[in-house]
Amino acid sequence: SQITTLINHKDKPKRSDKTLQAIQRVGQAVNLAVGRFVTVGEAIANENHELKEEMSVACIEARRAGETIAQLTDVASLDHPESDSHITIFTDKTGVVKAARLLLSSVTKVLVLADRIVIKQIITSRNKVLATMEQLEKVSSFQEFVQIFSQFGNEMVEFAHLTGDRQNDLKDEKKKARMAASRAVLEKCTMMLLTASKTCLRHPDCESARINKDGVFHRMRLALEQVIEIVTDSRPNGENEMAPISIYSGIKEFKNKVEGLRENLYFLSKENLSTMLEVILEHTEDFTDSAYTSHEHREHILELSKQAKMELEQLVSVWMQAQNQKTKDLMEDLEVAILKTCQCMNELKREVHSAATSLAADLLKYHMDHMVLKALKITGVEGNLEAVAEYTCKLSEQKEQLVEMCRLLRHVSGTEPLEITCIHAEDTFQVTGPQIISAAETLALHPSSKIAKENLEVFCEAWESQLSDMSMLLREINDVFEGRRGEKRVYLSLPRPGKHNSNLKALKPVKLDTEEQAKIAKLGLELHLLTSDVDSETEKWEDQENEIVQHGQGMSSMAYSMYLFTRGEGLLKTTQDLFHQAEIFATEGTKLASALHAFSDQVHDDDDKPLLLLEAEKLISMCKQLQITAKASVQGKSATFTKVDACILKTRNVMTLLCQLLPLGYRLLRKNQAGNGCLKAAPPWREDRVGTGTNAHAPERRAETYGIKSLENHVTNMTFLESK
């Protein structure tokens, strides 16, 4: 960002002392930052000899470029006659451009090399885990198993730390969700591997015990392989990942194409639209063919599918006429056809969502008592093979129901990360079901075996845990469908328990009582409605990585968490949490204003441009006011409530302004794209972004699913292994 400031600096005949000092400060800041960066790069080079030469060259180039920029911006002495021969940014603008290019390319090279080292560390760690797993598979005595498993546990802890850091660094939400799913499998399987291996060692001639153990090893190897695929961004044998399209995403894309006809009648063919609808309707067969879909839902889905075909036929007819003759009546008919088609698709989406979520709610409620698992444990201890066989059939039926539920939920999950979570849940039920059955059969064959009983408990716990996770997933899917975000995307920089800043320790956390919640409910509701409006505006932008969009989404997510606070829900538990969140919200608003200023520099002059800048200035002012309010010290219950009220009121005002700013920026972007197909130059808010996006402080709830502590406990508890 500092380099962009220098490059975009406009030459003016009259140079004030203030301007000269500012330029010099920027140059020095760049040089100092490069120096710190290069020091880290050189330290990495010394620790990794295979890349030392490449890294050292890149570091030298970066340091040289930083020093050149510092020299060219050393303009404070320009007013003195003896400095006339001194080459500066004013006399050699191309020199600064060259130095900036060299700096950016060398810094990028250092980052890429550092990234290669991190990837290599993860692959090396995975290879160590795999090698130790092979030893564990072949082990034949308890004593040997204890020694090797202790080593395996330490290696898994190291792998967990490395992959956890990598997961937090991933920018792609889809990859992040896949990584979280793989790491969750590894955590659960570590305990399964321990008990399954112990059971196999205790009962070496038992076929069901061997099948049970082999299943765990196989699943762990698949999870390890998936982690490496994500880290290296590759697929085995060069395969392309073909994720099945969900009904939700299909309808969203279809509606976007239909609504695009308002602006351009010729950008796609009628065959394209027909094919898109056919694909969506093929996917609805997953619901209509399912034995678990109610008769009422099936009839409604079939009826809406038929209506969708008719609405599209009518739309295509009017659309073809409008292409030949653009009359006012025809354009009005086209608008009506577009609205009716979109409304029909919305109703279809609502119907499949209702079918999937009602089925899920019913199944989860029905199976939450875990009666089949309890029966398997009891009959297993009794050694009743006939009863175990009867209950394993019931568990298989339950597994089929839950797998089908996951498949249907994936269609209506609404976001790619939630889709991946549904796929992970489906795999978990698919694999864990047979593993419980083999563990129960082993116990029935050896009813007095403590380790066989413990092994069955571990697999049953994994099943119960997944059922519990499904309830949470169902709430998240409903939140997305209803335009709420819930806690899954809340952007928080809150201090975690026990880690509050020293200046906050003296403050007593306060919660709102019922009366105070009632007073502030209306304001909270207004905030909730505004978050939905902002979400709708950000969804219109094609480039979801755009810094304006990301800051807008971050602010909306934070505002939603503040709304939840007014209801006594969500992650903001105390007034101090709310005030801290308000500060972060205001900071994010200031960043958005900066992004809007940078964006306005890239677009051509337009009537909307001055208005955008004016509104951006208003945003800065309002965010400063909010920060002052949030930081103000208050004493007493009444004063605290007044401060809460003021913070939420000012947050609401900022969100209201955001609802005006986002469409204004979008309109300006569309005008420039329509006018000449591109902006004036590569936008700095897209190309030269420093890592300050909204994800920087957002702890992903699923990012911590790989319980390192529990893994370390497995290793510690190895001393209690039976050694007979």
Automatic annotation (TrEMBL):
InterPro entries: Alpha-catenin/vinculin-like_sf (IPR036723), CTNNAL1 (IPR030045), Vinculin/catenin (IPR006077). SUPFAM superfamilies: alpha-catenin/vinculin-like. GO terms for biological process: cell adhesion; Rho protein signal transduction. Its main location: cytoplasm. Signal peptide: none annotated. Pfam families: Vinculin (PF01044). It is found in: Cytoplasm. GO terms for molecular function: actin filament binding. Gene3D superfamilies: Alpha-catenin/vinculin-like. One of its GO terms (cellular component) is cytoplasm. It comes from the Eukaryota. Keywords: Cytoplasm. Belongs to the vinculin/alpha-catenin family. This is Alpha-catulin. It comes from Chloroceryle aenea.
